[in-house]
Amino acid sequence: MARIVLKFGGTSVADLDRIKNVARHVKREVDAGHEVAVVVSAMSGKTNELVGWVQGAPKVVGANSPFYDAREYDAVVASGEQVTSGLLAITLQAMDINARSWQGWQIPIRTDNAHGAARILEIDGSDIIKRMGEGQVAVISGFQGLGPDNRIATLGRGGSDTSAVAIAAAVKADRCDIYTDVDGVYTTDPRIVPQARRLKKIAFEEMLEMASLGAKVLQVRSVELAMVHKVRTFVRSSFEDPDAPGMGDFLNPPGTLICDEDEIVEQEVVTGIAYAKDEAQISLRRLADRPGVSAAIFGPLAESHINVDMIVQNISEDGSKTDMTFTVPSGDVDKAIKVLGENKEKIGYDVVQNESGLVKVSVIGIGMRSHAGVAATAFKALADKGINIKAITTSEIKISILIDGPYAELAVRTLHSCYGLDKN
Ligand code: ADP
Ligand code: ASP
Ligand code: MG
């Protein structure tokens, strides 16, 4: 007997029929004698609808900020998960399975105060452990917890993955299964590249880069937690027949295992390609080339919570003037330009230019640490397709390349095949 946490994403609980199918996966594990906790997302599209309602609601007249009260945003958007946890508990009960729904505040899942993007601080798993020991399935609403102000706090988009891994760590589960609409983690998004291959295993570090660089199959924070707490996490499909052979295999379930790199025997140089849309580039022209100029630019941007990513500074010809280019999410461009405008004198630049609709494609692989020439291969492959590179950043296990939006899919496919990742 083991303790397992199963997480089902939005498409897996999109309607009552899908919820019945989810209940069959749960039943399989219960029948095998395991203690089971289930984490659910809202029905697919629901959270977007709720966010849209909040954005469309009236704002406080005369308020300095164009934004709504984040605590009320959380009160609204957390409701999608309340519906699906209740519906799944009802469905399980109808199948003669002892089940009970739990909201984040009932467990409680304690978070920090960053409403809308809260981090889990602590989970008191004692109550659900006790109930699981008595044979009750805990059906937990993902994406939500309880802030220090005793108000519902949500964990950022895709946050149910993080709920699941955090609960698995808190109840010391033997396994955490993330069920989704694809049957594992692929070498790249299988919806863009049909030749993508499913990975049997992927190292925590690689999955962390893939997720950070745009592969939305897992929320970044869930991978961090799985890595820190050594949670055995599998990504697998909810759309396969729950009773097909091998589905209940405890040690080797179908799907992709996220694990330590030493568990991976045949390490490729490149493991995967990720892409992130909606990047924007901002350039400050004819800056004074002196100490403190970077701090004068990026300090105020950071204070305004603008996430700056790639940074390129040109060497000045005469040692007096230079150009600085960096990227931010497209949604933050207006805010960034405003902040730069307010600090124009302090920074000392001539003009600011911006370009939106760019895409960052990234090549990821632990094998890069010990192989030369990986970047050169990418640059040549992109050049052969006539794709212009606007900026580059690298780390030990990844190369990120900024390109024009319309070339995104071509670039992902090109990189995927130039490293031999296409399936035969
Ligand atoms: P859920 O609603 O179950 O949380 P998501 O939509 O958040 O599901 O994540 C699953 C999606 O992630 C897949 O449908 C797939 O298009 C996308 N995806 C992006 N990159 C990858 C990848 N490398 N491997 C698998 N899926 C990926
Ligand atoms: N329902 C939330 C979202 O759409 C959380 C999740 O699906 O993980 O972001
Ligand atoms: Mg998701």
UniProtKB/TrEMBL annotation:
Catalytic activity: L-aspartate + ATP = 4-phospho-L-aspartate + ADP
A single BP term in Gene Ontology: homoserine biosynthetic process
This protein's UniProt keywords: Amino-acid biosynthesis, ATP-binding, Kinase, Lysine biosynthesis, Nucleotide-binding, Transferase
One Pfam family here: AA_kinase
Binding-site residues for ATP, renumbered to this chain: K7, F8, G9, G10, T180, D181, Y186, R191, K216, V217
Enzyme class (EC, first level): transferase
SUPFAM superfamilies, A to Z: ACT-like, Carbamate kinase-like
UniProt cross-references to InterPro entries, sorted A to Z: AceGlu_kinase-like_sf (IPR036393), ACT-like_dom_sf (IPR045865), ACT_Aspartokinase (IPR054352), ACT_dom (IPR002912), AKii-LysC-BS (IPR041740), Asp/Glu/Uridylate_kinase (IPR001048), Asp_kin_monofn (IPR005260), Asp_kinase (IPR001341)
Residue ranges occupied by any ACT domain in the UniProt entry: 282-357, 363-424
Gene Ontology CC terms: cytosol
Gene3D superfamilies given in the database record: Acetylglutamate kinase-like, VC0802-like
Pathway involvement of the protein, from the record: Amino-acid biosynthesis; L-threonine biosynthesis; L-threonine from L-aspartate: step 1/5; Amino-acid biosynthesis; L-methionine biosynthesis via de novo pathway; L-homoserine from L-aspartate: step 1/3; Amino-acid biosynthesis; L-lysine biosynthesis via DAP pathway; (S)-tetrahydrodipicolinate from L-aspartate: step 1/4
Keyword hit for ATP-binding: yes
GO molecular function: aspartate kinase activity; ATP binding
NCBIfam families named among the record's database cross-references: asp_kin_monofn, asp_kinases, PRK06635.1-2, PRK06635.1-4
Record-linked PANTHER family: ASPARTATE KINASE, ASPARTOKINASE
Similarity field: Belongs to the aspartokinase family.
Protein name: Aspartokinase
Gene this chain is encoded by: lysC
